[in-house]
Design brief:
Blueprint (H helix, E strand, L loop, with lengths): L5 E7 L6 H13 L5 E7 L6 H11 L4 E6 L5 H11 L4 E4 L11 H9 L4 E6 L6 H18 L11 E4 H9 L7 H8 L3 E6 L13 H15 L2 H31 L6 H33 L7 E5 L4
Helix pairs in contact: 5-8, 6-7, 9-10
Length: 312
């Protein structure tokens, strides 16, 4: 297979209901670009018929279609990593399979890449998500930017384009847990963003629960910055100084006014606050220790069951 200019990497997890719609819109949109391309689907251990549908699509368009079938669910970002390691194009585009990002918008990213940028992010013009999810995402965006200093306007949008050099740098990393847009931003020299349309999910349900989103943001913040630990250290210093000042105040009060009979519940409240603060600090430290533990085990990030591709 000749080297294409564009590789489109699409992670797929239980998307049986919407895959045909994706096929019907994706290939015409890429054909209209007038450039050599390949579509690289990564089946992330789907439990429905997604793998069978990908195999059928490969048989229909073997010239531009490839499929990687993972043996088990590895997560969206690890599935994209598998796609990156097999992509052949000079421009690599990531796209979700749920059609919330219209495939017709890929052309905007390709045009920006051809202007000389090595990383093009996307910003949803009008999000078609619930109000809570939209608000929570914006709040986490602001918090993440303050902690990591990574300026990504819309971190939840996976429609992005990467140059070959940026993808090669990402492939050289052996992290078992990462956030690809942020990792790419650290390697990019000429990043930019474009505004794209956003649609409601065509079929199926979102694979990201509230817990998954919280988990993802913990990985993002602890994987790219030590600021949370530094903030907590400074908070610990402030609490220690406050406790010392309160201790001195109580001693002075006892010497001047005599022993205090009341204030038991205030003492309980203070104790519970300090205990909660300690537990939070232990949990935060555990996040970093857990990442080190995952890394030193040297387990494979994903297992490939099969690769469907046309051979010369």
């Amino acid at each position: 297979m000749s080297t294409p200019e564009i590789s489109v990497v699409i992670p797929v997890y239980n998307e049986e209901a919407g895959l045909q719609n994706l096929f019907d819109r994706l290939y015409p949109a890429l054909d209209a670009l007038g450039a050599a391309y390949e579509v690289l689907f990564v089946n992330d251990g789907s439990r429905d018929r997604s793998a069978a549908l990908l195999r059928e699509q490969f048989e229909r368009r073997p010239d531009v279609t490839r499929a990687i079938l993972l043996a088990a669910n590895a997560g969206q970002h690890m599935a994209i990593m598998a796609g990156f390691e097999h992509a052949r194009g000079q421009i690599i585009v990531t796209l979700d399979a749920d059609l919330q990002n219209p495939p017709e918008e890929i052309g905007k990213l390709i045009a920006k890449m051809r202007e000389g940028h090595d990383y093009v992010g996307s910003i949803r013009r009008k999000r078609q998500d619930s109000l809570f999810r939209t608000w929570a995402s914006k709040a986490m965006n602001r918090l993440r930017e303050k902690i990591t200093r990574i300026k990504i306007t819309d971190q939840g949008n996976m429609l992005r384009a990467y140059s070959r050099s940026v993808v090669d740098a990402i492939n050289s990393c052996k992290e078992v847990s990462t956030f690809i847009p942020a990792l790419a931003y650290t390697f990019a020299r000429h990043p930019t963003e474009v505004v794209v349309e956003h649609e409601e999910r065509a079929a199926g349900e979102s694979k990201y629960s509230l817990y998954s989103l919280i988990r993802l943001n913990f990985d993002l913040m602890t994987g790219f910055s030590l600021v949370p630990l530094q903030w907590f250290s400074m908070l610990g210093i402030l609490v220690s100084l406050g406790s010392a000042a309160l201790f001195l105040l109580l001693i002075a009060r006892r010497l001047i006014l005599g022993p205090e009979a009341e204030g038991l519940f205030t003492l309980f409240a203070l104790a519970f606050f300090l205990i909660g603060l300690t537990l939070f600090g232990i949990g935060l430290l555990g996040e970093y220790v857990g990442r080190v533990y995952q890394q030193v085990r040297h387990r494979p990030r994903y297992l490939i069951e099969a690769v469907l591709e046309k051979t010369e």
